[in-house]
Amino acid sequence: MTEAAAAVAWRLGADRVESARDRQHAATLGLTPINDVPALGFYIERDDDGLVLRHAADPAGTGLRCALADTTELADRQAGGRRSPLARAFGLHRHAPMRVLDTTAGLARDAATLASLGCDVTAIERQPALYALIEDATQRIHATPEQRPVWWSHWQWPVHADAADWLSADAGQKAFDAIYIDPMFASPRRKSAPQKALAWLAELAGTDEDAPALLEIARAHARRRVVVKQHARAEPMAPPDLQIRGRAIRFDIYLTPRA
Questions:
Q1: Has 110 been labeled as part of a binding site?
Q2: Does 210 carry a binding-site annotation?
Q3: Fewer CB under 10 Å: which end of the chain, C or N?
């Protein structure tokens, strides 16, 4: 299980129909519906651009949201194209795009990048508030065809589940060429990345102490490879077959070729 994950509330809006729908969805996800900004901790609320994650200490701040359709942000993440470390970790510089399962989606930034590179991507997130952000972004784009990015056909509906449990259930029906794991550990990884996003994600998700167990399950299910994102100086969870190094991060690759 995740260690020291933070609880999150769902602040309801003034619109009665929308508020009733959000209240029901909050209950489904195990989030506490509230009417006012809480005194402490995280909460999500709906604004004109969809669901946003905020903190009681910074209610007027920009917050965090899942920006699937943010072309500027995606262009930054796509820098290098199929020669980028992420693309090379999945073998996209040599092979055709594949079916990918992102088991630790977070805000779905890497998942969206892989979809933009042609991979059919399914994103799983077990933290309820983060999943709500991904689901809301998916729903909003799905409902507005004129705003869909060109790669939208590669984006599958997200899943709210523990990835290890989800993979283990009806495993024969879940065929993925590659499985991606981006675990959250106690030490912050990328000091050049936006500190608020990293700090908030770390507090929300806690530390993924069960990541080594997820790796073993993923290796038993992936048809071609498992890719694990790590701090550049972190110890591998298991001896990898290949490694792709970036400036601050490293991708450990475990080959799992199957007929």
A1: yes
A2: no
A3: C
Does residue 96 lie in a domain region? yes
Q: Is residue 42 part of a domain?
A: yes
Strand-pairing partners, residue 47, are 50
Q: Is 241 annotated as a binding residue?
A: no
DSSP string, 64-129: B---TT-HHHHHHHTTTGGGSHHHHHTTTTTS---EEEESS-TTSHHHHHHHHTT-EEEEB--SHH
Phi, then psi, of 18 in degrees rounded to 5: -65, -40
Q: For the whole model, what pTM was predicted?
A: 0.90
For residue 69, what pLDDT is reported? 76
190 annotated to bind ligand: no
Structural domain including 96 reads 71-255
pLDDT, position 256: 95
Same domain, 115 and 214: yes
Measured CA to CA, the distance from residue 116 to residue 34 in angstroms comes to: 36
**Count of the separate structural domains present in the chain:** 2
